[in-house]
Amino acid sequence: MSPPLLFVDDDRAFSSLGAAALQREGYAVTLARSLHEARAALARLTPALVVLDRRLPDGDGLTFLSELKSHVPGAGVVMVTAHGDIASAVDAVRAGAADYVAKPVELADLVLRVRRALDTGRLKDRLAAAEAELSGRRRLIPPASAAMQRVLAALERIAASPRSAVLLLGETGAGKEMLARHLHALSFQNEDTPFVHVNCAALPEQTVESELFGHEKGAFTDARTTRRGLVEVAHGGTLFLDEVGELPLGLQAKLLTFLDSGRFRRLGGTTEHSSSARIVAATNRDLPALMARGEFREDLWFRLGVFRIDIPPLRERHEDILPLAEGILADLRRELGRKDAMLGARARARLATYPFPGNVRELRNIIERALVMESGPELELDVLQGGKPMPSLAAAVPDMDPESFVLAGPPRALEDVERLYTRWVLERLGGRRMEAAKVLGLSYPTFLKRLGEGS
Ligand SMILES: Nc1ncnc2c1ncn2[C@@H]1O[C@H](COP(=O)(O)OP(=O)(O)OP(=O)(O)O)[C@@H](O)[C@H]1O
Ligand SMILES: [Mg+2]
Fold first, then answer.
1. Domains, in order of start, for the chain
2. Which of 451, 453, 442, 414 is nearest to 147 (CA)?
């Protein structure tokens, strides 16, 4: 937990006082009195931060800075400069120092700047890792199915109105977050535009409210300072409200007000603030069912539903399975160093009939697992053999025999038969719609359409 620091300074009084002050803050400090000693220390340890004097007995700290940066690129540097030497402070920051302190140094000031430089470094690391993850690995593989192509075409149109809210509906792993990020990239060309992800299910109500809308100092016991909410952080970009079905009712009202006016108040605050963030909400819950139970506001459903995107489950778009599998394999091959791996004929056949209850995420996991577990160049995707098949009609509802569905009279349009059969299944299941959709292997919106209720 104690980040290692290297303190390079030949002024004995200052370096021992400074080191002691930093040690009291919990940092593990190593002292070096010259560049020579600093190089020797770097051979042994990788500091998170270096406090570096400019004038050292065997050279200039500034020249050493570039050597240091190439040796330990992640280390932050706080430069110590002579009193009044602003030019050298500017040079240090240009050469990559995070900050500088001028002699005579106030110890409290030194501690503060060290802490701040470390925090900035950590933040940068986290952002870099997140960006690499997203841009490198998680590219959107172009869909082959007409249904998904329609979804992408809709997103392209929506991108042109970057203030409108969007609701993404789809089963787990179907690609809601992927599409939210895709819409963001289509809407805003500037890469610095914020995309802020909030998981509404992960936090208790008061925390969600202060995360989303911020709080004023003293709004609750732990609110020692005023904090901006993520709605403000996402200003000019996208606020992705994941699992919006879990948003507590009180906050649903506040979100509705924000959607209507772009305005909101921080927790404990009276001043109105505004943000131009676009809300993209997503859920795999059955929102109409939540509405029927009074757990989701109908007006919010309508407000969010102006641009509603239904992402079909993977089993309803067979044409996407192989292109996705090939694309994911190509990405993972590079990452896992299995350049020769490819899908064998049996693997393809297995993929074609597997129902993918976990959708694209499951497909990704299957391929990742095969790359690790199977050593041959031709992947078999053995896991799919033992994989759990979709619940068949009879297995899911033992007392329901599909044979007992009888149609009398003259031949009818297939569409009518589908509707009648859908209703029959629904009836047998005591009107439990989500369950009926599942048994029929349909997404909820498709189920509603078959029932003759969908849009
Ligand atoms: N078109 C696509 N191209 C490449 N990868 C995809 C595509 N669609 C989905 N994926 C991958 O599938 C996985 C699941 O996608 P995502 O996280 O977007 O699903 P989700 O709908 O948000 O799921 P959940 O409801 O569980 O949060 C991710 O690893 C994502 O990268
Ligand atoms: Mg998700």
1. 4-131 (3.40.50.2300), 138-310 (3.40.50.300), 314-386 (1.10.8.60), 393-451 (1.10.10.60)
2. 442
CB 61 within 8 A of CB 53: yes
CA of 269 to the centre of ligand 1 (A): 38
| Cβ neighbours for 340, distance < 8 A, ≥ 6 positions apart | 377
Amino acid, res. 177: E
- Using CA atoms, how far residue 109 sits from 4, 114, 383, 395, in Å, is 19, 9, 59, 70
Cα-based angle 308, 312, 318 (whole degrees, multiple of 5): 155
Peptide bond into 142 cis (omega under 30): no
Strand partners, 447: none
Task: Report the pocket of ligand 1 as residue ranges, CB < 6 Å.
Answer: 138, 140-141, 170, 172-178, 284, 324, 360-361, 364
C-alpha separations of 196 from 136, 278, 423 in Å: 19, 10, 41
pLDDT tens, residue by residue, 391-436: 444 344 545 666 677 777 677 788 888 888 888 888 777 677 777 8
Largest Cα–Cα separation, the chain: 103
Q: Which atom of ligand 1 is nearest to the CA of 320?
A: 1
Closest-CA residue, ligand 1 atom 9, reads 175
Residue 51: name the closest of 25, 24, 30, 79 by CA.
79
What's the CA angle centered on 99, arms 94 and 100, to 5 degrees?
100
Question: Which residues are placed with Cβ below 5 angstroms of ligand 2, an ion?
Answer: 177
Under DSSP, is residue 55 helix (H, G, I), strand (E, B) or coil? strand
User: In a mutational test of the pocket of ligand 1, which residue from 178, 182, 200 has the highest number of ligand atoms less than 8 Å from its CB?
Assistant: 178
Cα 72 from Cα 405, distance rounded (Å): 72
pLDDT one-digit tens code per residue, 56-90: 999 999 989 988 887 777 788 999 988 777 777 88
pTM score, whole prediction: 0.61
What's the CA-to-centroid distance between 177 and ligand 1, angstroms? 6
CA distance 20 to 34: 19
Q: To 10 degrees, the CA torsion angle through 269, 274, 277, 282?
A: 50
Return the ligand number nearest the Cα of 176. 1
- Ligand 1, residue 176: give the atom nearest the CA: 21
CA–CA distance, 26 with 251 (Å, rounded to integer): 40
